[in-house]
Amino acid sequence: MQLSFLGSQQSSTSPNTADGSPPSRRSHAKSSPRGRGQNLLKSSALMAAGTIVSRITGFLRTLVMAAAIGIGSLNDTYQVSNTLPTMIYILVGGGALNSVFIPQLVRAIKDGNGQEYANRLLTLVMVLLGGVTALAVLGAPVLVSLMSAKIAEDPETMEVAVTFARYCLPTIFFMGVHVVLGQILNAHERFGAMMWTPVLNNLIVIATFGGFIWAFGSFSTSGVSAANITPEGLRLLGIGTLLGLVVQAAAMLPYLREAGFRFQLRFDWRGSGLRKTAKLAKWTVLFVLVNQLGMIVVTQLATWAGDLAEDGGNSGTGITAYNYALLLWQMPQAIITVSVMTAVLPRISRAAQDSDNSAVADDISFGLRTSAVAIVPCAFLLLALGIPLTSLLYASSGDGAEGVGYALMAFSLGLIPYSAQYVILRGFYAYEDTRTPFYNTAIVAVINAGSAALCFALLPARWAVPGMAASYGLAYLAGVGVAWRRLQRRLEGELDSRRLVRTYTRLCVASIPAAIATWSIYDLAVSTLGAGSFPLLVSLTGGIFSFFVLFFAFSKLLRIEEVKTLSGMIRARLR
How far apart are the C-alpha atoms of 419 and 160, rounded to whole Å? Predict the structure, then answer.
């Protein structure tokens, strides 16, 4: 679902500004409330569009990969090698750069030394990640063995994996550079580049694997494997993968020049405030580590349950079903909530630095209500049409598509607390508090891992993974409760809990009958049109359309202000 937030329009019956907040509580910014709301919504729409295009090209990328090297052992080897740099980057400091850097940079800009601070931090990141990258490339055989003992058992496959890894691991450096440059632009309220440059990476990788097909033939004709892939083929895929991240990072430079930023190596780190940033970042590193440990537990149990279910004749109920469903489930969050909050975070940070708790509360409320208008109906839509959606997308997997669908339905309603927690934690980051998000994540991880263990022990093997998917949402529901109370105390009671509860409740009430009616309409369409991919596509399209028509109709009856505001924005833009 694309956010059409361009062209803000106020409701004639509401005294609030275009961004949904009272004018009297927005004194920390210099521009008019209406202008701020319009700029924020335009930024969100620009980022959402970039995220959508990035997701689409990323999906096309996987299709071309499968056409070039299949989905067997060679692709597994490539995936393991290509996953390594992302994991290492996140563990070394990826989360810290995303969450801690903006508040610190905004403070530095406010104090008049933003250029110097950004140059020092960028230099430090380049030195740190350069060293980590060199060590990772040298230790590639050890890292591949840690990722997959099965690959390490076969010398030929291991050699291919290590070769791939040594091309992929240098992307650690360019990931870090891209993120820091993007956060510098975000701090200057230039949000589009960070969302759109990954599209270039996807296009280059698509061209690389397309070139592989042109040179060596498709997988169906070449039968390429780890045993017979040529050194030239390895080199082509490896260099293309690395080149994609290089271009993604380099593409940020023109935008930085336009923003007035000039890079200069700065090694005068002592007394620059970077030590404070490092202290804040340690909690974010622990945040990421705890999150990863929780997912390791789920991965182990889901894989085990999948094996047991397959022995009983039920395929597609293991970790693959869990991961495919998780990927689909997270898309609304990535497109909507992340885009909105990336635009809001610098504004929250400035308000926090001014000790304006009212303004921070307004922005958090705005982020929650704005994202909820899309997140809540999407959650109920996934619940209603989870199985038809996955049956269409994964039709080639046979019975496995249904397993993905059940997992997606189990995940669905958890999208609401999952999205809300993301917004709430930005409030703590604005106050440079990274300890509270760590504790909150620890609570979620423990509940998630414990619930997954219970599902594995108590449910039949074929239903264990859907149970784990539902547990994921329940864990975030508990996390939201804890985080909300802590943020309310931090903001001295400024958060308008009643208004938020009223908005979420009404959105749910509008979504429930729409979801029930949508499933009935879809079922009737399938019964009328019959089986097959095209009838399924027509029925699914009609179901989605009918859902949103009914949702907006019920929203109008319930007088949901946020939906009226969004509708006004869309109508204004269309005019």
Answer: 40
Provide DSSP, 455-486: HHHHS-HHHHHHHHHHHHHHHHHHHHHHHHHH
The first and second tokens of residue 9, run together, are: 């329009």
**Residue 233 predicted with pLDDT over 60:** yes
DSSP 8-state assignment for residue 312: T
Give the tokens for residue 320: 């693959």
In the numeric block, the tokens 């090698």 are attached to: 81
Q: How many CA atoms lie within 13 A of 266 on its CB side?
A: 18
Cα pseudo-dihedral 115, 120, 122, 128, rounded to 10: -170
Cβ pair 136, 172 in contact under 8 A: yes
Put residue 424 in one of left, alpha, beta given phi > 0 → left and psi -120 to 50 → alpha.
Answer: alpha
DSSP structural state of residue 396: G
Q: What is the 3-state secondary structure (H, E, C) of 191-217?
A: CHHHHHHHHHHHHHHHHHHHHHHHHHC
Residue type at 404 in one-letter notation: V
Residues 571, 575: Cα–Cα separation, whole Å: 6
Tokens of 438: 């760590």
Task: Report the alpha-carbon distance of residue 348 to residue 343 in Å, rounded.
Answer: 10
Our separate counts of H helices and E strands in the chain read 23, 0
CA distance 397 to 446: 33
- Band (pLDDT 50/70/90 cuts) for residue 9 is very low
CA pair distance 316, 343, nearest whole angstrom: 39
State pLDDT tens for residues 443-491: 988 899 899 999 999 999 889 989 999 999 999 999 999 999 998 888 8
Dist. CA 358–CA 24, nearest whole Å: 10
Which residues, at least 6 apart from 484, have a Cβ–Cβ distance to it below 8 Å?
424, 495, 497
Alpha-carbon Rg for the chain, nearest whole angstrom, is 24
Q: Please tell me the distance from the alpha carbon of residue 505 to that of residue 495, in angstroms, as a whole number.
A: 17
- In contact, 462 and 317? CB cutoff 8 Å: yes
* Alpha-carbon gap, residue 14 to 399, rounded angstroms: 51
Q: What is the pLDDT of residues 349-370, one digit of tens each?
A: 888 877 888 888 888 888 888 8
Distance in angstroms (rounded) separating the CA atoms of residues 446 and 434: 19
Amino acid symbol at 312: G
At residue 33, the pLDDT reads 46
pLDDT tier for residue 144 given thresholds of 50, 70 and 90: confident
Tokens 């308008």 sit on residue = 496
**Cβ proximity of 37 and 14 under 8 Å:** no
Terminal CA-CA length for the chain:
20
Q: Which long-range contacts (CB under 8 A, 24 or more apart) does 232-239 make?
A: 234/160, 234/163, 234/164, 236/208, 236/211, 236/212, 237/69, 237/78, 237/164, 237/167, 237/208, 237/209, 237/212, 238/163, 238/164, 238/166, 238/167, 238/168, 239/167, 239/208
Looking from the CA of 536 toward its CB, the CA atoms found within 13 Å total 14
Q: Residue type at 257?
A: R
Whole-model pTM: value is 0.66
